[in-house]
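SAMPLE LOG
Freezer: B-3
Tube label: C17
Construct: single chain, 350 aa
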Amino acid sequence: MRVAMYYNNRDVRIEEMQTPHIGPGELLVKVIASGICGSDVMEWYRIKKAPLVLGHEIAGEVVSVGEGVKHYKVGDRVTVAHHVPCNTCHYCLNGHYSVCDTLRTTNFYPGGFSEYIRIPHINVDRGTFVLPDEVSFEEGTFVEPLACTLLGQRKAKLRAGQSVLVIGSGISGLLHIQLARALGAGQIFAVDITEYRLRMAQQSGADHVIHAKEDVPAYLRKTNNGRLADLVVVCTGATAAIGQALNSVERGGTILFFAPTEPNVSTPVNLWDLWRNCNSLVMSYAGPPDDMATAIELIRAGRVAVRDLITHRLGLSETATGFKLVAEAKDSIKVIIEPHDQRKGGFAIA
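STRUCTURE (predicted):
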């Protein structure tokens, strides 16, 4: 089978690998659609394990079922979580699935930018979800990132009517905007450094869009009844965004750090201000299985319009182009790779 082998952000090659063989309790899934995540182009993180096949936002069709599998059959349309928790360790039992050792070591093989993937028994058991007829394969690629968004907003304790500031209006930021709107947020503000993404933020439901060069706290006070934001969601690893978030959160408010910086990045924090203003700092990573199930229902019901966020659909042979688009972070939002599409040229729909 063909795979897109990652060497670095500028070197993604189409190579041949043997189609995986499955064992008892496993599934073989034909990948129909696979989204490029912003984390796929975090070169400082990925290059340490290169060469490898990336891709974890997948939807596809079950083409082979291992002995003992009871709940899935050939022909099922599915999406699959690449990381799954053990559900029994200290962290899982306390609701901290994202730091479970099992979650951090599980994966399907070889990766979503391939024609077929093997789903290990543990991922079959607690990370494979049948897509409803109303949810397309390409919409199914959003289940995992939307699950991550759900976990983040739950940890941040977003309440109806609260004002929300999203810093970074890429795909994660736009999902946060749409989800916050669906969950009853009050005014929603979006910040970015590119006009294209600010327009997409407005289309996704932001009430106000602000260029990052502007005085964001002053804008908030002017348009939000003299107050800063109740919830600030940081969807970029840029260090400037951290300072902007700290200056833009209202007393009693929360900052959700949804995107990482590079390792060893230090940022000065005024603990006195945080203490005096009773602010909370929350981190969030991944999304447990229950959030995957919720994400499917939100997509099915149209509460989160993920199809509107797809800007490019590319064949597997164009994966390198897709990585370039996502790494540049300019005129693209969600790039979908379709491993079995033989087109020679991709197209944008936004």
